[in-house]
Amino acid sequence: MSETCAVCKQGKGPEKCEICGFSDNGAVNRNFITKEDAEFWLTTVVKPYRVKWEAEKREIELQAQLENAKQRETELLARIKELETQLETSVKPVDFTISAVRYHSTYQIGNIITFGNYDWQILDVKNDKALIISVNIIEERIFSVAHSNAAWETCILRKYLNNDFLKKFANEHQNKIINSRIINKGNLWYEKKDIRDTSDKIFLLSLDEADKYFGNSGNYQNKKRKISDNGKYITDSNGSSFSNIHDISRVSKLNNKASEWWLRSPGLDDYTTAIVNDDGSVRVFGYRADVHTGVRPALWLNLN
Questions:
Q1: Do 126 and 193 fall into the same domain?
Q2: Which of 98-102, 160-164, 258-262, 290-294 has the lowest mean pLDDT?
Q3: Domain presence at residue 147
Q4: Is residue 91 part of a domain?
Q5: pTM of structure
Q6: Which letter does DSSP use for residue 57 in this model?
Q7: Domain total for the chain?
Q8: Which of 234, 239, 251, 264 has the fewest CB atoms inside 10 Å of its own CB, making it the most exposed?
Q9: E strands of 127-177, at which residues?
């Protein structure tokens, strides 16, 4: 081997040194008189040097391994940095703005969203649009002036909603509101004829929709009439309302107090309009159109 002898520091070792004649197996050279002398020399001199030599050799090996590990660590850190840079430049952030709402789990039927300055409940989602209605009653207004035909097409509440109220939204929000064809049916219970369809951005729900989007019981279409008797609704062929387990979902508040709110469908005659009562039942008979009553605007929101 090429290492210097641990004893004499001159010859080659640790296997059979060519100068001092010793190795780790206890061999002696011819200069020692007795075997005991040789063993003494081996125990007191050779073996300690041998241990020290092995320790130094191991330290050198460990130091080399440490340097290799540090080099590998440097290479790995550089690779991680490279991958992070590639990730930043190749992956676009997810868009959760109003233009990407159709991809977001928040925009599901029944959920509440904020749009403009109001909270809205999602009633329906079709392709790239959602039907929403204000969670709370935003204000009280008359539907039409006294002694005038209370038709949605000509009422002053429709004019207000699609002008002054619409202007309360920022332009970017106004552009998200779809100008929709509104089908205006008459009153099925009181044989009021359909009126002309309209084109509106903001509108009110109809009798059909007040049933369909809040439980879809079919009570209106099936003429399941009920009448209030001591505060409870009972089935009656002369009943003027429909009421069911879904009433609670139709309850809406104004200033933290449950209140009535307008629908757009006609009531009993030309001077009445259907409403939702403060307990969530629906008064198909209607209410005087010139009385201040709660307003819950609805609209179709563009999700593109």
A1: yes
A2: 98-102
A3: yes
A4: no
A5: 0.66
A6: H
A7: 2
A8: 234
A9: 129-134, 139-141
CB 59 within 8 A of CB 67: no
Same domain, 172 and 295: yes
Site of tokens 């020399």: 41
In Å, what is the CA distance from 88 to each residue of 83, 94, 114, 204, 242?
9, 13, 31, 47, 58
Smallest Cα–Cα separation from 295: which of 267, 281, 275, 280?
275
Q: What is the pLDDT of residues 191-248, one digit of tens each?
A: 888 889 999 999 999 999 999 999 999 999 999 999 988 878 999 888 999 999 999 9
Residues 142 and 255 in one domain: yes
Q: How many CB atoms lie within 10 A of CB 128?
A: 12
* Number of helices (H), then strands (E), in the chain: 6, 16
Radius of gyration over every alpha carbon of the chain, rounded to an integer in angstroms: 45
Q: Phi, psi (5° rounding) for residue 23?
A: -140, 175
Q: Is residue 96 one of the residues assigned to a domain?
A: no
* Claim to verify: residue 141 and residue 283 sit in the same structural domain: yes
Separation of alpha carbons 221 and 208, rounded Å? 7
Q: Are residues 14 and 145 in the same domain?
A: no
CA–CA distance, 285 with 300 (Å, rounded to integer): 27
Q: Is residue 6 part of a domain?
A: yes
How sure is the predictor about 104, in pLDDT bands with cuts at 50, 70 and 90? low
In angstroms, rounded to a whole number, what is the distance separating the alpha carbons of residues 202 and 162? Answer: 6
Same domain, 157 and 285: yes
